[in-house]
Prior knowledge:
With 269 residues, the protein is α/β, with parallel strands linked by helices. The chain has 5 helices and 11 strands.
Amino acid sequence: MMWFVLLVMCFCEVQEVPADTLKVSDIQHDEGHINSLKSGQPNLRIPSETALDFEEDYAVQEGDLLLPSDRNAVNQLWPGVDGHLPVPYEIDSALESRTEDILKALNMISEKTCIEFLPHTKETDYLHFEKSNGCASYVGCMGGEQPVLVGPHCKVGNICHEVLHALGLHHEHSRFDRGDHITIVYENIVSGKEDNFMKKEGNTLGLKYDLESILHYGDKYFSRNGKPTILPKESGVKLGQRAYLSDLDVQKLRKLYHCDKKEGDQAAS
């Protein structure tokens, strides 16, 4: 009987969490598995982009990047012609109340680039905005009906962030040359979330590192104690934001999809 009492006491100690520390965002995916962060970490800081619907079967990395079921699949750019890129989209009926926010997010991109978002009709490849507990997207054009997950706490800027992933852009803080611009403070990161801060090889398009990017993590993302997980090497700089496309965000999209090609061809003729 004593061993049973001790077992119960140990279980309750592990599961006990102050009632005011849990939030909707405390439940998220971790590499495709449900991870309930009920570990008594009241200072846990995670962005709304990382909170995913635990009833869905998506494998995730870096909080909001969906992984294809075929791990050998190659992410591709959406096909454009002469400096113009049409991207079909569809908004699920369950997200009807978020239509205005989604359209504002799409407009953030289209008003500064050659990318035009058009309501889906018969196109094979298109973005499908789906209801979830948070925001997430695949990176690049995956083919067919491609989900972009939108949760109740995802604002216009968060949705725009996910659409940029769908267009082929990765997180800025994962750039291989980030060490010249930021320092990752691993001792402040929630245990098990270190993979969200991994560096990756990739094409920087010849553009400089962008601390202001809408695709950059904030300074306390995934903090276990309220202290910074990312420190800029330049003083007086705010890391990341979810309010607008930075100048370099716009340049990346324009270079990636050759938005100036048509204008250049006309000038040369």
